Amino acid sequence: MALLLGLSYVILGIIYIVVARTIWKSLFRQFLNPSLYHIQSLALPSFLIVIGLILLGFGWRLDPILQFAFFLQFTLLIYVVGKDKMLFQIMSNSKKHG
């Protein structure tokens, strides 16, 4: 389980960097103060990649409770990505209609 979580963290961290940068360039410059999102788009993927590498390297030695904590953190990540996706959809719809 730790190996799959670690690999998921690394892959999602890389994907988040690419998607966040692309969307930030197109949408956020017009609607919001981009500084907070800019920090999030740099910090979150960095943490994800480091956590993923830790799980890939040392996940087999972690207690099941700690692995469950990483799983809960992964669900929090899914929530943040979903929130960002909904926010981008709302912003793109308002851009098209307004």
TrEMBL record:
Keywords: Membrane, Transmembrane, Transmembrane helix. This is Uncharacterized protein. It comes from Crocosphaera watsonii WH 0003. The chain crosses the membrane at residues 6-24, 36-59, 65-82. The keyword Transmembrane applies.
